[in-house]
Amino acid sequence: MIALPAVGELEAIAVAVGREAASAVRSSADDVTTLDTKSTPTDVVTAADLAVETMIRDRLRAATPGAAIIGEEHGDTGGDTELAWVVDPIDGTVNYLHGLPFVSVSIAAAVDGRVVAGVVVDVHRNEVFSAAAGCGSRMDGRPVTVSCPPALDRALVATGYAYDADVRAAQGQVLASLIGRVADVRGFGSTALHLAWVACGRLDGFYQSHANRWDYAAGALIAEEAGAVVRLPDGPAGMLVAAAPSVAEDLAAAVS
């Protein structure tokens, strides 16, 4: 059993490691090497994904010896069951591979399964979004809050897509039913960034089915602590929704 840090300390650890990881991702951006694929031929793994996750794991182990680590690339590393880190070293790997500037690092700390601290670092804009449970959300250390659109038809909403073509086709049907009911829809290819942008009011809402925990663990907390209504998926194929309170219920109903 390790000594459990306070949530503010966990946030500070995540921020420090996230900043270092984002710098490493940026430094590798001009020489992206694809090493493998995962769930589909388009679900790529780059050398940077593996190297950056290894670095993150090393830093987190040093800061919180014995904690479990759940990562997208290297899987689950057993450890203390009370504290676990949930890591996505590059959220937006396809963007990264194609040189599109929508890439983030996501690190969350969970205590007894509940996320209590996290960071999302925008690699290209070098913006740092973070939160600790009960302490609000911040962008570069300054408090942020969600937007307040008057109705769903005035809301700018974002979504994300799965790698599996059949799932993506079904997601397209949901989008087709929604797009005439909102102000507009965007998709930038990074779940963590979408959630961070809900937190700071750049987006009024976000939804996505088939999201992985490492994609949304930190961002969902950041959005919630900024005042968003967040509905976590009820399973691997479930729907994740995060939105300003004024439109959250209508958005969730529209995409359910």
UniProtKB/TrEMBL annotation:
Molecular-function GO terms, alphabetical: inositol monophosphate 1-phosphatase activity; metal ion binding
Q: Does the record bear DNA-binding in its keywords?
A: no
Top-level taxon in the UniProt lineage:
Bacteria
Listed EC numbers: 3.1.3.25
Give the first-level EC class, as a single word.
hydrolase
What are the required cofactors?
Answer: Mg(2+)
Pfam entry (one): Inositol_P
User: Which keywords does this chain's UniProt record carry?
Assistant: Hydrolase, Magnesium, Metal-binding
One GO BP annotation is:
signal transduction
Which reaction does this enzyme catalyse, per its entry? a myo-inositol phosphate + H2O = myo-inositol + phosphate
InterPro entries referenced in this protein's UniProt entry, alphabetically: IMPase, Inositol_monoP_metal-BS, Inositol_monophosphatase-like, Inositol_monophosphatase_CS
Which residues are recorded as binding Mg(2+) 1? E72, D88, D91, D215
Q: Where does Mg(2+) 2 bind?
A: I90
What the record says about family reads: Belongs to the inositol monophosphatase superfamily.
What name does UniProt use for this protein?
Inositol-1-monophosphatase
Identify the species of origin. Euzebya pacifica
